[in-house]
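Input record (one chain):
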Amino acid sequence: MPTTHSIISLLSRLWQHISPRRRGQFGMLLILMICASFAEILSIGAVLPFLAVLTAPERIFQLPAAQQFIRAAGIANASQLLLPLTITFGIAAIISGAMRLLLLWASTRLSFATGADLSISIYRRTLYQPYAIHIARNSSTVINGISGKANGVITSIIVPSLTLISSGIMLIAILIALLSLNPVIALAAFGGFGLIYAGIIKLTKNQQLINSKCIARESTQVIKSLQEGLGGIRDVLIDGSQAAYCQIYRNADILLRKAQGNNSFIGGSPRFGIEALGMMLIALLAYALARQPDGIAKAIPVLGALALGAQRLLPVLQGAYSSWSSIQGGQVSLHDTLELLDQPLPNFVGEPPTKPLPFQQQINLNHLSFRYAQQTPWVIKDLDLKISKGSSIGFIGATGSGKSTLLDIVMGLLTPTEGTLEIDNQPVTISNHRAWQAHIAHVPQAIFLADSTIEENIAFGVPKSKINPDRVKQAARQAQIADIIETWPKKYQTYVGERGIRLSGGQRQRIGIARALYKQADVIIFDEATSALDNETEESVMQAIESLSEDLTVLLIAHRLTTLKNCIQIVELVNGEIKRIGSYEDIISNKCEKGRFYTLSPLVSDNIIYLPESGRLIT
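The corresponding structure, as predicted from the sequence alone:
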């Protein structure tokens, strides 16, 4: 369970993620806090002489310390002190208020600017994480961390931390001012209020931690329920399952709001009792001072200064307590945010684009095995395969046979658990996988389309100012969709809607193919990418792709065998192992048998022997 020490360590970790520029701004803010504290002392200190002049001006006139000011101002009698001291008190109050307003503006602005830095850093680090990490966690956790919990760090951690520091400096300044008036009373009031708040902190600490865990957990659940309900809106409407999704959302949101409300109550409630105690304390002091000789004249300035001090002291104490309470309530969300901020960045971040890895001969998969975790079964088992440049290779197999995982490894998205992926006999590693990925374009079955124009979706990831319109049109023609696009009123500036909702499935897939062709890669990987196309369109698209270049390597996954009829070779996978390899004719006539010789492409001079017992290819 987190403790005070863990909160300090969390804040220390957070500080490490704040940029040097922001740290300098926090240093300047600290100086501003100190200046505001001096202004606070000035405003409280000006009360005593002001009230003294109102009640007994002759006493101020006779003070040795005031004689120099009186002579310099040419004041002849005590009544003339009233106007200068009134002006002085007013100026002190204005300066104090202005400093507090400036401090509020600076701290709020700096807090939210720092929150933006943290949110951007989380998003940046998340985008650079390996594919294996992305598929291992729910996107709701990341989205909530970037949008919700990063914002929570601003309101629950950064702003309260600055308020706590500012309140601490203010409390010291106010205490110094009150000690100069009456040390005993000042220490009694300060100590009494402090002990009350310390007791409240101790009593509510565990409940705030429980609330903090609930807020962190249920805020993610709220995002998850929204994503699932809105993401599957067609099925929700067809099935009439709105009530079920509303209930899921309600269960999470009610718990979230309840925990937030509890923390808000714990943070704000003590002030009302403390204010009542403060009024009682001033009343008792007034009674005690009034019973002394010359009590009324002597008591009014002291009570006025103490009343103003209390008026400043109690809100500052309450602000310090409320800030500490907020930090306690947000510590679990802060921990989750720091986990995202601590995600490592790869070495190539910030470096210029890498030079593509030389690829002139073949892709080698040597004794390749893969599984997602130590406890999970093998998805790929000791697989050997050679794919020559310029080949057109198809992959078939039942769901779960390892086809998509194999191609994810070829694309450098997943790292083999055992064995190697080699390009022209050079192993693909973490250090050079970006250089290999420069060759690759990927067309998945489910095409992601941004809610932007056709042109921006074809040139996906390219800044709008750098898009080549001619290249976009050429890619659209090759993907057999240009004729449709050019009949629309806005043509390539047509918006596709969220996730391409305004387009048909076939149109979305052809835009995905055009996106791959726009990249002008020399290795194109189709993962069920033509499943939504009719046979005629599919054949036209594949012919257009095959006519691009003799050096273009095409790898296709398909459940529909006719999709692969133009492939040089077809590889069938079963349970992560190669069952057979052959041409389209061999596969459909089931002629791939033990002992047969097959070549994966005309560019491979040596024959390949496939041995079903071992699942190995021997050259």
